[in-house]
């Protein structure tokens, strides 16, 4: 059995599809399944068992001998949430419990970290583990992810294989339920469909023109491919960046979305909301050398390829992956 937490969510549901495609059908999915807005993400997938996230460790105690691998992708991911207690419960302490269980039962573990750990990026975007204690995230979500990364590195007891993945700006199918936290591609698609126009955040820094803020956008199909690779190659434990390795502007993304929809580009700029303005990242770009050095050699989708696939094969069709 393979366990996937956060399984009804965006990235994890895509991973379940990738595992099914590789003929792994004994999937145990873990989540808060009372959130009905995510129910379509798991429709049609081959799943052995559904387990509520608060019942999972009791379930694992009874079934650990059958568990081959755990992907711990479940988390509270709202960067505008400032209640630290929520992140301590769902991100930090739950992940510690997962780590300790994997040590006790000798189960390999891949877990989701985040590029939010890098904060303003002043120290760069290199996934050297010696840098992790020096990082200063810009919000409680980033703090929770970095706190767990630091804790994991300090442990003397470790799963025999483990990897923490710092996800950069992920976009792709199955994020319909994410609301404000959905990717810019989905927001752009919805705005263009409704109004024919797109609003992008204005730059509030003189060194970046409007729309030329840059992010490392990674297509979700690339991300789950890396997860699959790590399951098949259980060595070289550690913390890894997971982005495309190439920063692109929001204007690049906008123009690709208009093009994929067959529309003429029409863009307006609006002020970045006050509640996120001070913590807004103007540039992110993953150094992907570490992952490449352990043998991952598949190319990543370019922004053009990823947006075209997402818009034409999923958003325009209303389909899930």
UniProtKB/TrEMBL annotation:
Keyword flag Transmembrane: no
Domain called NAD-dependent epimerase/dehydratase: residue spans: 2-243
Cofactor or coenzyme needed: NADP(+)
Binding residues for substrate: 169, 180, 187, 201-204, 215, 280
Recorded catalytic activity of this chain's protein: ADP-D-glycero-beta-D-manno-heptose = ADP-L-glycero-beta-D-manno-heptose
Binding site for NADP(+): 10-11, 31-32, 38, 53, 73-77, 145, 170, 178
Gene3D superfamilies (UniProt xref): NAD(P)-binding Rossmann-like Domain, UDP-galactose 4-epimerase, domain 1
Example of a GO biological process term: ADP-L-glycero-beta-D-manno-heptose biosynthetic process
Listed pathway(s): Nucleotide-sugar biosynthesis; ADP-L-glycero-beta-D-manno-heptose biosynthesis; ADP-L-glycero-beta-D-manno-heptose from D-glycero-beta-D-manno-heptose 7-phosphate: step 4/4
Top-level taxon of the source organism: Bacteria
Subunit structure: Homopentamer.
Notes concerning its domains: Contains a large N-terminal NADP-binding domain, and a smaller C-terminal substrate-binding domain.
Record-linked PANTHER family: ADP-L-GLYCERO-D-MANNO-HEPTOSE-6-EPIMERASE, NUCLEOSIDE-DIPHOSPHATE-SUGAR EPIMERASE
Protein name, per record: ADP-L-glycero-D-manno-heptose-6-epimerase
Organism lineage string: Bacteria, Pseudomonadati, Bacteroidota, Cytophagia, Cytophagales
